[in-house]
Structure formats: C-alpha cells, structure tokens
Amino acid sequence: MLVAWLFNIAYLLLLIVISPWLLYRSWRTGRYRRGWAEKLLGHAPKLTRDRFRIWFHAVSVGEVNLLAPLLEGIARERPEWECVISTTTDTGYELAREKYSEHTVFYAPLDFTWAVDRALANIAPDLLVLAELELWPNLIRRAAGGDVKVAVVNARLSEKSFRGYRRLGWLMRSVLQQLDGIAAQNMDYAKRFELLGIPTERIHTTGSIKFDNAQTDRENERTRRMRTLAGIDNSEKVFLAGSTQAPEEALAIGVYKQLHDAHPDLRLILVPRHPERFDTVARLLNESGLLWKRRSQFDDLTADNDSAHAGKPVLLIDTVGELGAWWGVAYIAFVGGSMGTRGGQNMIEPAAYGAAVSFGPKTKNFRDVVEMMKQEDCATVVHDQQEMTEFVRECLTNPVKTGEMEERAKRLVIAQQGATQQTIQFLLAIAGSVQIRQREAA
After folding, report:
1. Is it true that the peptide bond before 275 is cis, omega within 30 degrees of 0?
2. Percent of the chain with pLDDT strictly greater than 70
3. pTM score, two decimals?
C-alpha cells in the first residue's frame, strides 16, 4: 500500500508540473480535452459479469492497429469471450471506435489507485493484456491482487529502457514479477526481461505481430479506393512520406520540387503523424507554390474526381487511420519520425507492399526491424534532403535495382510472419489457467 501511494504522490506532482503544458497544448491543438472522468476517476463503462472478458490496452494509433489480428484470432478461437479496448490518446480512441465498433472502447485510467480500482471494478476483466510495454505499476498490482491475469504482448524492451528499469532495482522487479506472461518480439528483448528478474518460464518469444498485421496485396479494396481517390494511374511513381513530423514534410516537398520537372510521372503524397499539424503542412504547401489538395476534400470515394485531379496535385492526407492503405500506392516511401526526436515509425507496412523504403537515422523504436532491413539490403537511411533527393532519383532512374530492393523487402516481411498465432496460443494458455469465477447474470 505504501508503494502504491508513493506512486500516487509522484503522479500528482508530475501532473501539477506538466499541467501548464497540457493546458497550452489543449488550447493550441484541441488535444487532451476528452476522457478526463475515465482517466482521473476510472469512470470506465460498467459491464455485467456474464462471460469471460479480456481487457486490451493500446496506447495510441500504432498499438490500436496492432490489435486487429489478435481480436480476429480470439473471435475465431473463443467466440463466447468478450474483448474490450482502452486507449490513452484521442487519436487512438477515435481509431479504436471506428475500427472496432463492435467492441467496448474507453480511455484507460491514469495510474492512480482510485482510478485503477474503479476501472477494474467496472470492466471486471479476467485477463488484462498490455500492448508492447505499458508498465503501469498500480494497474498491474491492483489487477494481479484482484485475481486478474496480466500479460504483455508484442513486448519490446530497448537497451535504454532496460538500463532505466534496472536502476529502479527492486521496485521495478516487484512490478514485473506480477506479470503472468510476456510475449517478446525477439530473443534480445526476452533476455532483457529475464535479467530484470522475470521467471524464464513466463517469457515467450513470439516474434512481432506488426509483421503479421502488414498488408502485402496492393490490390486490396482500401488501397484500390485510395488509388482511385488520388487519381493515380499505373504510369505514375508515387513518393509517399508517411507518419511525418517537422521538418520531414519540408524535405519531401523540396525533393519533389527538385525532381518533378525531370520526372513528370512523379507524384507526392504527405501523411503527417499528428492531426494538429495538418494545417501547418497545408501552409508549407501553400508557400511552396505547388498545386495540392487535401484528402478531406474528397469525402465521396466513389465520386468522379477527374476535374479535381487536373494537374496531378500533391495530396495532403489530413485524416486519421488511412496510412496503412495509402502505403499501398507508394512506389517510393519515406517513413517519418526518423529525422527528429520520436525514434522512428513503422517501416514494415511500406516494405510489405514492396515499396522502395527510406527513413532517417533516428529509428531507436524499430532498431531490430531496421537491422533486419539493412542486412537484407531492402532499405536506405537518408540523413538530409540531399540524400533523400539522391535516393528518390536513383529509384526513378534505375527501375531494375528498385524492383530488386522492393522484392527483398516484401520477402523479408513474409518470412517474419506468424507471430499472431503464437501470441493467441500464449494468451489462451494464460486464460486456461484462470479460475474463472462464476459471474452473476445481469
């Protein structure tokens, strides 16, 4: 109890310190305005105790997308079970509501004991599943103390995070030892969890679900619709910069302006990572002098947009949750979040489609994937606009080499698939050990 309240005090102090920043960001961007009753007080939906229930927690958009094959697998293997989903961010919440409309979706409680206790009482889960590595000490302790099994799936633990957890010593070990199982993405991550004191028998190496979640067919329905929407024909070469942050959009615009005259078949599509930056990128496009269009201007995907596409404009994707489909139109891809401080974004998706993939040098969040792609020579690291320009030019002028690179990328992704089924069996094994309590009918 003392440890739990020490965490409460630490969280309160942190909340006080960052509240001016939260208020400023809320005023400027419209973020952080919703879900506070659920976050601070644990006002999650109150569910009846009528069947076995899994609570999946996914922080934001990436983790929300990750759940798709797991939810499908659980529905196939155990259709009588109920799955509910919590998220932390507004974008994650909106995507989950849209993508998993048949499931209960809510904001996760912040890690205060009172919020966690109420959320657990309302949701009444038998199994709590945390995506990737969301180690909230009070949530884990209270769940485990209430006979709720706790597992982490698609778990990753970077060297930096490992060192940080190790410095916390017994405090972190006491939290991790409450976990009933960890499904790690690779052997390196599994070893780090073991060194933190988790019993070996609770650690399983399943691979990364992100490989399974990647679409490999460019002719899938959503991508075909996007291609029609953008007015892209087979003769055009799309350069797509996706999940970007500043200054990556400006770099991509510069590359396009430099190469377009010599390569009139080149198209540019920009997909910023965060919705609050859509207008900022729109201003960049206005200042560039290029013809461009917003995705939100084409709300009817079946409409005839030929007139809107006269001149083949740059396309700004100012909607959430469509990037996976848009990657399917890319001939050349730049994966954002890799020139700044974010640590990179998911480069598996464009690789799976067989795009020529590039990204910046700052990719710590996907270090293992980057190493695999480098070893298979199916991705290029670019450090600045000049290198980005040279990469795109090489792709345009050397189609044979580009095609070989694309084929290697697609083969790599296919070879790594299979983690979903292993993870589902891992969860079924944990669920099978639960002493399922007799629930009262509503």
Report:
1. no
2. 93
3. 0.77
